[in-house]
Amino acid sequence: MRPSMNTRSNSHSVSASAIALACLLVFFSACTRQSAPDVSELTAELSAEGSDDRYSAVKDIDDRAETMTDSEAVLAVPHLQEALRDTDARIRYRAAKALSKLESAAAPAVPELANTLQDEDPKTRYYAAKALYKIGRPARPAQDALQRALGDENPDVQYYSAKALGAIGEEAKSSIGALNALAQRTTEVKIQEAASEAVKNIQGVE
Q1: What is the C-alpha separation between 109 and 12, in angstroms, rounded?
Q2: 132, 146 in Cβ contact below 8 A?
Q3: Other C-beta atoms lying within 10 Å of the C-beta of residue 18
Q4: What phi, psi does 48 have (nearest 5°)?
């Protein structure tokens, strides 16, 4: 049976609509890519007078951190270091979170991250400890701050502080006593394991 004119007309209409929709999606996707500010523009906005503008910029940097190129990370880190000293708690939080995603590229921020372990906001302290763990051995200058953070009231801060000390390795030998004490007093299994594993890493035990 041959299809009716209405059937063919409906088929052509659906196809045309699908093509038009696909074209619109491609167009809007291209516009989004073109309109998104690059990292250099965002870092410049971190110096804005208004805290809302600075927060918007650091949030965008945080959202992009995991996909940044090496050169973009190098550009962003000094500005994130400055953001860790911002008077706005939201900005310090986002800066610490972004640095935790940049891993070893965040090494220049070790001094600021060490200070951030004393931030009033537990989530900011958590991301500072996590960032130091991701940095690894170059986080050695933060050892004393990390050891103090083993006594933080936030279990997640304790956890990543222990892991960060373990990642520093044998140069963190003076923290073994504090790690053993943490493993004995905590009731959190994951913290016990993190502290014990850190001691093994520091001692070079396989």
Answers
A1: 60
A2: yes
A3: 10
A4: -65, 150
Q: Which residue has the tokens 């007093």?
A: 185
Look at the block and give the residue holding tokens 């310090």.
92
Please check whether residue 165 is in contact with residue 147, taking contact to mean a CB–CB distance below 8 angstroms. yes
Q: Name residue, tokens 């943490």.
A: 182
Angle at 107 between CA 105 and CA 111, to 5 degrees: 150
pLDDT digits (tens, 9 = 90+) for 89-134: 999 999 999 999 999 999 999 999 999 999 999 999 999 999 999 9
Distance CA 25, CA 74 (A): 33
Cα-based angle 67, 70, 76 (whole degrees, multiple of 5)? 80
DSSP letter for each residue of 93-156: HHHHHHHHHHGGGGGGGHHHHHHHTT-S-HHHHHHHHHHHHHH-GGGGGGHHHHHHHTT-SSHH
Q: Which of 135, 115, 40 minimizes the C-alpha distance to 78? A: 40
Find where tokens 């090496």 sit: 70
Position of tokens 């935790």?
A: 100
Closest alpha carbon to 117 in 86, 84, 80, 90: 84
